[in-house]
Structures are given as C-alpha cells and as structure tokens.
Amino acid sequence: MHSRSRPKPAAALSPAFPEPTDAGSGSASGRELRERGKRTMAKLLDAGTQVFAKRGYHAARVDDIVKVAKTSHGTFYLYFLNKEDLFQALAEQVATAMYDLANTLPPVTPDEDGAAALRVWLNKFSDLYRQYGPIIRAWTEAEIGDSGFGRLGTGVLTEFGRVFVERVRQAAPPNIEPTVAAMALVAMIERVNYYVLSGQVHVEQDAMVNTLAAVTQASLFGTPLRSQNV
Amino acid sequence: MHSRSRPKPAAALSPAFPEPTDAGSGSASGRELRERGKRTMAKLLDAGTQVFAKRGYHAARVDDIVKVAKTSHGTFYLYFLNKEDLFQALAEQVATAMYDLANTLPPVTPDEDGAAALRVWLNKFSDLYRQYGPIIRAWTEAEIGDSGFGRLGTGVLTEFGRVFVERVRQAAPPNIEPTVAAMALVAMIERVNYYVLSGQVHVEQDAMVNTLAAVTQASLFGTPLRSQNV
Amino acid sequence: MHSRSRPKPAAALSPAFPEPTDAGSGSASGRELRERGKRTMAKLLDAGTQVFAKRGYHAARVDDIVKVAKTSHGTFYLYFLNKEDLFQALAEQVATAMYDLANTLPPVTPDEDGAAALRVWLNKFSDLYRQYGPIIRAWTEAEIGDSGFGRLGTGVLTEFGRVFVERVRQAAPPNIEPTVAAMALVAMIERVNYYVLSGQVHVEQDAMVNTLAAVTQASLFGTPLRSQNV
Amino acid sequence: MHSRSRPKPAAALSPAFPEPTDAGSGSASGRELRERGKRTMAKLLDAGTQVFAKRGYHAARVDDIVKVAKTSHGTFYLYFLNKEDLFQALAEQVATAMYDLANTLPPVTPDEDGAAALRVWLNKFSDLYRQYGPIIRAWTEAEIGDSGFGRLGTGVLTEFGRVFVERVRQAAPPNIEPTVAAMALVAMIERVNYYVLSGQVHVEQDAMVNTLAAVTQASLFGTPLRSQNV
DNA sequence: TATGAATGAGCCTTCATTCAT
DNA sequence: AATGAATGAAGGCTCATTCAT
Q: What is the reported pLDDT for A184?
C-alpha cells in the first residue's frame, strides 16, 4: 500500500531504546519534522490509540481521529498515508515495546525468588498490556484478511515464544517438550490479561499476577498451585 | 428495521438446554419454514460462516454472503433482519455448543485416568474450535464497541469458568484460589487453540492436547510437566 | 484500472452495425441487463454525454451525471466502474461511428460529381461531429497524461488518414507525397468543424462544407478554389 | 481572493503591442520585483509550463509546480493569485507571441518565391508551436466551461483569421469567399502541428512544412499539390 | 419465495488556499 | 521574500438496506 517505508521496528530491538512516541512512527513522506510537526504527529498517534481502542480498527473513522486530535483531515494525510498507515505506526510501537519486554524475562527458578522475579515481570507485562491493549485487540481484528499486520503479530508472538522456550529449557528436565509448553504459557498470560482488561472477568491485577506466576512455576517445576497474597 | 423475527435455529441444537443468551437477539419470526425455506436459510448460515471466517465481521459484505449462498439480497433480508442478525444466529449456535461442551468437562484427577479424560475432552474442544473458530474470531471483533455480542461471549466464558472452578475445587487443596486459576486455564486452552488454528504457530493437535492436559494437571496437582506421546 | 473488459470497438468495424446506444457500452460487471437495466444504462450514457460536453472530462462530477440521469450514485457504480469507465464507453461509441464513417469516404474526382460526393460525406461528418463533438473535445482533454484514451484517438485518426491516403493516391499524380497531404486534409476538416461547433467562429454548415470540399479538391487537382452557394 | 495584482510579464514581451487580452486577467500587483523576485517568478512560470505540459490544466497540482520550481506553496501565492492566474500569465505570453507571428505572415504569391516565404513563416510557426504547444493544449482544456480563456483563444484565432483573410483577398479572384477559406487554412496549419507535436503522427518538420505550404498555395491558386523536397 | 435494480448515507482522500513564523 | 504546516470544502466510491416485480 504505501510506497515509502517507515523505519522498521526490528531496528528498535537494539539496546538503545528510542523515545516511545517517535519510535516506529512515520510520516507519509519521511520528511523531517519541526517541533510543531512532531507535536501534531504525537497528537494524531495518541488520538489514534484512543479511537482504535474505543471502536476497533474497522469501525474507527479518520473523522473520529482528527476530531480527538483537534486537527483537520488534511493534516491527517500530511502525516499518514491513510488509516492503515497510522495503525501500522502504532502497531510498530507496540511491537517494539513487546520485543523489548520479552527480552527482560528473568530466569525462572522453583524458589520464592523465582516467583518474585516472575511477578515483577508479569506486572510489567500487565502495565504494557494495559497501555497498548486496545491496539493489540484492534490488531487481531486488522489481522484478519490479508494485510501485513499478521506478520508483525506473529513476529512478536514468536519472540515471546523463543524467550519462554529458553527459560523452559533452563528450568525443566530434559523429558519435556519446551516449545509447546512455552506457547501455552504465553497464550495464558496474554489471554488472561485480555480478559481482565476487556472487563470480561473482574480480578485485581495482584491476584492475576500471582496466579499466573504460580501456574507458570507449577507447570515447570510441579510446585502445587497456590495463590499467594490473595 | 422490520419487526418480523427470525426462527431461532440455535434453540433447536439443544432442546433441553435453556437458551441463556436469547435476550439480546432482536430477530426472527416464529413463522414455520417449508422445506425450501429451510434449505435457503441453511445456505445463508453456511455462507455466513465462510465469509465471516475469511474476512471478519466488519469486512464481510452482505454481497459476499449472498454470492456464496447463490441467492439474492432480497432473499437475505427475508431470513435475517440484517448482517448483525445473521451473525447473532451463528454466534448462538456456537454459544450453545460451547455451553454443552463445558458441561461435559470430566472431573480432573491426578492420575493417568484423569489425564486421559482431559485429553479426550480437549480433543473435543479442539474439534469444536476448529469448526467454529472463525466465528469466534469474528466475535471478538464484533464485540468491540457496543453491540450485545460482548454479553454472549462473556456468557460462554463465564460458563467455562464456572465449570472449571468446580473441577478445580474438587481437585485442589482448600488453600488455593480457584476462580483465577480456572480462568487462567480456560484462557490458555482457548488461546493455544486460536494460535494453532490461525496458523500463527505450527503444532500437531496431539502435541497441543497433550501439553494442555499436562499443564492443567501440573497446575492443579504439581505433577511435573511431561510432554507425552510427542 | 478495470479488471473486466468491455467489448472492443474494433469488433464494431465489421459491416454489421450494432445498435448505437449499446455498442461499446459496458457495465461494471459484464452482467446481462434486463429491460429496465438497459434503460438506466442508456440514461447514464446520455447524461454522461451532456455533462462531459458542458464541463469537460475533469470538471465533470459523477454527481452531475447522476443528477441529470435522475438516478443515484449507487446506481452509477452498478453500471460503471467509475467516471473513466463511463467515458471510455462513450469514447468507444464515437470511435466506432468514426471508423465506420471513414470507410464511406467516396473516391475524390476533379469534376462536379466528385465535389458533390465530397459534400455529402462532409455533411455526414459534420452531423456526426456535432453529435459527438463534446465527447471528442473531452477526449482530447482526457488524453493528456497516461490513460489509454490516446490510443483510441490515435486509432481513429490513423483510420481516417489511411482512407484519405487511399483516395489521395487514386486522385493525385504520382509525384506527390500522399500521407502528409492526407493528414493535412483530415486535420483541416476536423478542426474547422471544431471551431464552428465550439462557437469560436460563426459560419453556416453549408458554407463550411462547400469550402472544405473546394479546398480538398483544389489541393488534389489544382481546381482553383471557389466557394459555391455562399 | 486578495486583490493585489500580479506584474504583467506578457506586456514586457512586446512593448509596442497593445495588450489585447488583458481584460480578463484578475491578477497581480504592480509592485516592482527585485532581482531575486524576478528569478523566483521565472522559476514558477517555467515550472508551470512543464507541469501543465505534462498533466494538462486540471490535473496539474500547485504542489507539482512548486516542487518543480523548488519553492514553497506560500511563495507561489506571493506571485500568483491562484493556479488560474499562473496559467493566464503563460497564456498571455503565448497569445502575444502568436499575435506577433500572425502579423509577419508574408503575402502569398503563386510562384516559388511565395512558397519559399510561406515555408519560412511556417517554420517559425512550428518552432513557436513546439515551444508553447503544451500550453496551447492545456488552453483548449481550460477553455471548456466558463473561464475567460476562451476569449483569449478566440482572440488569437481571430487575429490569425484576419491576417489570413487579407492574404487570401490579395491572392484570390474576387469570386471566392475568403473568410471561410482562411479559417480552414488556419485550422489545418494549427492541427497538423498539433498532431505532429503530440506524437500522434510521425512526420519530419520539413515534410510537414512543405506540404502545408503546398496545400495553402494550391488552395489559393489552384497549383496542383506536390510535396517538395521530401 | 425469490429476484436484482435502486437508493443514499457514510467514509476516505485530495488539493487549492491561508496563515503563523 | 520565503517557508511549510494547517485547513476544509469537494468529490469519489462503497455497501447495508429497501422496493417493485
């Protein structure tokens, strides 16, 4: 669809973390932005997040977005090729942040230290998911069909899987099949956060995190599941 | 919007089962359908499944559906109030089947019998998910916003949760918090099936089922995770 | 631009002349039209002729066309892919008619019989030009840029040139260069009609035809130019 | 619309020549331009010529023009009221040059001297047409509708007609109708140049000029058409 | 019961023009 | 004298829904 490409999120995998609102954000033309231009683009990205969150990808109208951003249609198309392009930019922000988070997953040990480290990480995941969840949801929606989003999503998923597999390998006896188990854990963590964020189930973040940590440990080390601090 | 309501096909699927989600359905005449009418409606439902699967809820056009069903726009509106109504009908089919399946979840025991029973059930879940997955995915999409779908989805989720909680209670020592753990297991099972079905990860159904059963047991009884038959 | 193709005008070169309003006319989908559909399409083609005539290709809005045709936007796009597609259909009508006319050019002889035959033919040309002139003008406009119209126009021009060359060859001594002379005559005839039709010069059709016939004969046979019946 | 009017560049082209088409020009401050300003204006006029040539009047975007001129939107509107104003300025250049050329048309005599003089003039016409042809083409396009361009075009045409009529009168026996014949010759000369310039027919300039001269002479004096020097 | 033509609100996108710096 | 960000009125096109047959 667009003929000019934005900086790839993969680049952001590097340790040097770019400023959140600029990372992966692109313009319709790749031109350099002055101060004012940056503000406008940030407003649009932010408005996009809100509107996609509220209405989902398909139902979101450019008109909604520019209204929230208090700017005009013309301006929108100065910064983005179209709705998809804006979404792409947001998705890349998410992807970048997720990649980075995945790589901070601590080694999982069977003791209370391991559980604590896991809980810290799960809290960070939860915070990130809360921040970007709407985009992720819309992502799933946009994914259907043909667009290139799928790959982005799969990429992030794969990265999570890869890191979890490593941890599973480090932790578990050699007779278990780490890839599937890793995926199962990733799936659980993602989806529970989704249920909670979307309000389909009502649980405190602490309870959720504790349980997820416990299930994860139990899965790897056979520690009987006990919900702590609930 | 005309007021005529659509015959409720979902109801027929499980005569004994109370129609829990019927409230929101704004459809469907009680008029009896002749043989031909039944065939046409079946064609439309089937076409709807295909098209929603391929394009998602929003991107699906009535035009696509009637083309696949080899019928006309006029006919479509003879059987359904609108696109949402058709989707509702399909969603109700899914919900009914899911409710029924949830209620066949066997007691979970720590022994190999328990694992085997779990695997049988997970296979049934997987089959059902494969059959209806596209609708479920589109469901998530339609859910965003305001429609009544959310309730339907939440209802099914709740039912699964309820049943799992019962089993977790039966199985686990009294000091664990069953509701959150149950939800985590449901989330894991659903999402892994989704990943696999949507082709985002490539795993054989057997491997998936075995792992899910193992993780479930491990979570409840501390059985160290072992992937069997992989 | 469009993925489905309309019947080629070249086909219409065959002696069997198709009904004027159906020739070259195409639909967005190639589907067969019922009586009503044919009427609607005719209305749109007619409205297109009027609007393109009045405003030119670029300035013509689909909205104008459907207003003149007393129909709706939706209907327009039922019959044509877009504005260009409608124009194409009209242009093909013109091209077909022009091809056919070109092939009826009589042999040019130096006597009064030759002049009379030429006048008859020029009158037919003039009538055709009056009928289709607006489209031809818009054609020139649409031609600029990249579209395939150019070829169509060039094709018609070439056909006229070819036929005139034949006649010039028949008529003129062997020492003259027929192709350029033929083109010059074609250019003159076309452009004079254009000037007159567009109201840039005010001359009666008779005077115009007589003069064109006289110049043509004079060019070929050296008959001194005399304007008759003026 | 601001009322400041643009400096009239056309006037400068022929100080002695009365500005006949100035009436419709709604432009341009009498403010004097410094060296830099003159350069900028020249860049814009030049860019305008290129872009109108390539895309035609309607399809030409101000954005294209300023890009080619390597300047900004703001600057464009410093020099011209709007797109039409720039076009007007260019058209006036053309009109002025054409007027001047028309008035150098030599008397047409039946001998070889007359033919030679005609060929010299036709070559000048051709050169001018090549230089300004794109504008003339766009002119025709802009003409459609309501703008004042038509008058400008008609004015030039009328001037050519007037001059040709004089020559025809000088040359021809009193029994011919000079106005129509003159127009026919003008039409021919213009249109042949157009065909050649637009690449619709492929002829060397020499062949074209020779033929046009021959047809012109033949029309006036009955000299049989012979293409010379081909 | 079935058809397909017709409708028009809605949304996306472009581009001439203005304005603050 | 120059810049480039911002604006918003057009205008193209789609698609859910209705209607006449």
A: 92
Residue given tokens 């305001």 in the structure block: B146
Whether the CB of D61 is below 8 Å from some CB of chain C: the reply is no
What are the beta bridge partners of residue B5? Answer: B28
- What tens digit of pLDDT does each residue of A108-161 get? 888 899 999 999 999 999 999 988 877 887 777 766 555 556 566 667 878 888
CA C62 to C1' E17, in angstroms, rounded, equals 24
Q: Return the domain boundaries, chain A.
A: 1-90, 104-230
Fold observed for domain D33-80: Arc Repressor Mutant, subunit A (1.10.10)
Burial (CB < 10 A; 0-12, 13-18, 19+), residue C115, is: buried
Instruction: Considering only residues 144-183 of chain D, list those whose CB is below 7 Å from strand F.
Output: none
* CATH architecture of the domain with residue range A104-230: Orthogonal Bundle (1.10)
Contact A222 B218 (CB under 8 A): yes
Q: What is the pTM of this model?
A: 0.81
Closest CA to D40 of D15, D11, D7, D14: D7
Do B215 and A187 count as a contact with CB atoms less than 8 A apart? no
Taking the Cβ of residue C54 and every Cβ of chain D, the question of whether any pair is shorter than 8 Å is answered with yes
Higher per-residue confidence, C90 vs A199: C90
pLDDT of residue C12: 26
Provide CATH code, domain A1-90.
1.10.10.60
pLDDT for the residue numbered A10: 31
Residue B92 to residues B1, B47, B49, B148, B197, Cα–Cα distance (Å)? 21, 16, 12, 12, 21
d(CA B50, CA B52): 6
Residues of C within 8 A of D227 (CB-CB) are: 176-177, 180-181
Tell me the residue length of chain A: 230
Per-residue pLDDT at D42: 95
pLDDT of residue A43: 96
Read off the amino acid at residue D154: T
Interchain CB distance below 8 Å, C194 and D187: yes
Structure-token match 């005309």, residue found? B2
Say what the pLDDT of residue D83 is: 93
* B188 at interface of A, judged by CB pairs closer than 8 A: yes
Structure-token match 């009056």, residue found: C130
* Confidence at C48, pLDDT banded by 50, 70, 90: very high
What architecture (CATH level 2) is domain D87-230? Orthogonal Bundle (1.10)
Superfamily of domain B1-89: Homeodomain-like (1.10.10.60)
pLDDT at D132: 85
D30 beta carbon to strand F: under 7 Å: no
Q: Which chain D residue lies closest to C209 (C-alpha atoms)?
A: D180
Nearest to D22 by CA among D41, D3, D9: D9
Q: Which segments in chain A show pLDDT lower than 50?
A: 1-27, 226-230
Residue D64 pLDDT greater than 90, yes or no:
yes
Chain C residues closer than 8 Å to D192 by CB: 183-184, 187
Using CB atoms, list chains with 3+ pairs below 8 Å to chain D. Answer: C
Phi-psi region of D33 (alpha: psi -120 to 50; beta: other; left: phi over 0): beta
The stretch D140-169 carries a mean pLDDT of 74
| Per-residue three-class SS string for chain A | CCCCCCCCHHHHHCCCCCCCCCCCCCCCCCCCCCHHHHHHHHHHHHHHHHHHHHHHHHHCCHHHHHHHCCCCHHHHHHHCCCHHHHHHHHHHHHHHHHHHHHCCCCCCCCCHHHHHHHHHHHHHHHHHHHHHHHHHHHHHHHHCCCCCHHHHHHHHHHHHHHHHHHHHHHHCCCCCCHHHHHHHHHHHHHHHHHHHHCCCCCCCHHHHHHHHHHHHHHHHHCCCCCCCCC
